[in-house]
Structure formats: C-alpha cells, structure tokens
Amino acid sequence: MFRKIVWKVSTICARAILRQRNARLGRDVRFYGLPITSGDLRRLTLGDRVVLINRPEGTALGVRAPSILRILSDTGRIEIGADTGISGGTICSAASVTIGERCLLGADVMVFDTDFHNRPAEGRRYARPDWPAISRPVVIEDDVFIGTGSKVMKGARIGRGSIVGAGSVVTGTIPPFSIASGVPARVIGTVEQAPTVQ
C-alpha cells in the first residue's frame, strides 16, 4: 500500500514540477520519489512510459540518491526514449545525452558528456567552463542494459542491444549487441539476438 501511495503522489508532483519548468514529458511517465533537476528543462525530454526510481525501496538493489537530471549549458540536452527505466541515475549534459528506447540503467549509473572543468591548470577551480571545448555528445542506443555503478563518459556510444557490466567505465564506442565490462570497458562477448520471424 505504501509503495502505491509513493508512486501516485511522486508521479503527480514530479510531473507538475517538470511541466511548470517546460520539460517535455511523454504519456504515462512515472516517478517513485522526486528527482533532482536543474538547468533549462526545456531541453529535457522524457518519452512515453519512462520510469525514474528515486528512493531506495523502489528497486531490488536500492539507490544511494535520487535521480539527477542536469542541463549544464545553453546547448545541453537530455533525451530519454520511451519505456526506459532509470534507478537513481545521474545524467548531466553540456552538449547532448541521448538514451534510446527500452533501456535499463541500473542503480546509481552516471552518464555525462563533459569533463566539467577546463584543462589549463591556472584558474581551473574558478574559471567558467568552456563547454564546447570540454564536451562531446553521448549516445546510448535502444535496448541497452547498463549495470549498477557504471559511468558513461563524454563521447561514448553504446550500440543497440548491448550490455555494460556493473562498475564499468565507458569512454569509447561499444558495438551493437556486445557485452562490455571493465575500466575502461572492453568487449568481452556478444548478446544473442532473437530470431527474426518471417
């Protein structure tokens, strides 16, 4: 009973807050607890039936913190495709982060398209970030499963149907239907594809 109440109240409140800030929400987007959001949310799109888990009891493994969705710059953009589920994930964008349909992001996954700080050592702590110089788009294609605690970093691309093992760090391109794991993530196997019906 408690969970049903949390789902209902969280979803009503989160939808109202995000719509007030001009985020684009598809049909039946659901929230378990409230996410943390910042930036120009006109650049945030959540597709139909996206689910964000923001409380520990909302998923078997639990989450350490609510989901965080941050638009960091005037060019940042986050697009999350239909039927994707995220558990306590952090997504930050200064360029663009695109997550496809039917993806699963395990507990506490982080996705970011920027280094956050400039490279020159002098004044790095206080300098305004040069977002174009330190950011590159991230693309996660349809049907990808990313295991708990993984990090998907700037410029990464994860091909359709792939699996990323827990605790991995993705810095490059993972081909479609691959199993990748490690730091940095490397392909260690392939995902079986369902036979096509003729």
UniProtKB/TrEMBL annotation:
Record's keyword annotation contains Transferase: yes
Keyword flag Transferase: yes
Signal peptide: none
Origin: domain of life: Bacteria
InterPro entries named in the record: Hexapep, Hexapep_transf_CS, Hexapeptide_acetyltransf, Trimer_LpxA-like_sf
Annotated GO MF terms: acyltransferase activity
Keywords (A to Z) from UniProt: Acyltransferase, Repeat, Transferase
Official protein name in the record: Hexapeptide repeat of succinyl-transferase
Naturally occurring in which organism (per UniProt): Aureimonas jatrophae
